[in-house]
Amino acid sequence: MGTSTSYSAPKTPGWARAKATMTRFANQGGVGPTQLSDVMSAYVRALGGATHAASSSASRAVAQKLGSFLSAMSRGGLGEALRQVGLGDLVGQDISTTLSALVDRLAGTGNTLDEIVARRAATEVLAEVLENVETDAEIDELYGRGLGQERIEELLEKFVSLSIYERLLQHLGDRIDDASLTTAEKQRIEEQIRDFVEQNHASAFRQYRGAFFRLGRGYWACFY
Hints:
By secondary structure, the chain is an all-alpha fold. About 70% of the residues lie in helices and about 0% in strands. The chain contains eleven helices and no strands. The chain has helices at about 15-25, 35-45, 50-55, 55-85, 95-105, 115-130, 135-140, 150-175, 185-200, 200-210, 210-220. Helix 4 (about 55-85) crosses helix 8 (about 150-175) and helix 8 (about 150-175) packs antiparallel against helix 9 (about 185-200). The radius of gyration is 18 Å and the shape is elongated.
């Protein structure tokens, strides 16, 4: 838990319904008459519908930067991609240092809710790309010098789904925190939400790939 402490959802009729639905889902331990589809539908309506839900400028900006970086990495390897974003001095450095600086460069420090969400999603995606290696040379060897287009699309899909998941927890995660459940049960509910979001995105990604706003709108619409 702990992802919802920095922000409280607005107090409007739509948000009241969304919070009540999440409360029921959490109080039943994630198993019962209230389904995750009910939670997501109420949440998207509270945000003003799929189009409004997908309008995060921070997520769009970070997605574009992330996509450009991954494409550069696909063409010329990690070192060239780092140079293109002004981090050429990190070539040859340890991956943990590279990851930290790269997240700062692509996603900023995260001051607003949308920026925090985008930063967390970008951090996880980049960590997945750079995991289990220690140098940029190992990265290039692992990916045969670069990333393939299919892999880039998978990573961008993951970024969008993580953005939705993180945003929901920022808005409604306190409903889970306040439920009379064990820590393990609360973690299981968060995992259920994450899995649900990820599993409901494949068709939207195939339909809207190449246009982030339309992609995001399509993602949100599958819950509406």
